[in-house]
Amino acid sequence: MKKVVLAYSGGLDTSCIIPWLKDKGFNTIAFCADVGQGDDFDAIKKKAIKSGASKVYCFNLQKELIEDYAFKALKAGALYEGKYNLACALSRPLIAKKQVEIALKENADALCHGCTGKGNDQVRFETTFRLMAPKLEIIAPVRTWEFKSRDEEIDYAKKKGIPVNVTKKSPYSIDTNIYGRAIECGVLENPWCEPPKSIYLLSQDPEKAPNKPTYVEIDFLKGLPNKINGKAYKPIELIKKLNDIAGKNGIGRTDMIENRLVGIKSREIYENPAGEVLFKALNDLESLVMDRETMRHKTQASQKYAELTYNGLWFTPLKEQLDVYFDKIHEHTTGTVRLKLYKGTCSVVGRKSKFSLYKEKLATYGKGDQFDQKLAAGFNALWAMPFMK
Ligand code: ARG
Question: What is the residue with the minimal CA distance to atom 4 of ligand 1?
Answer without folding.
Answer: 120
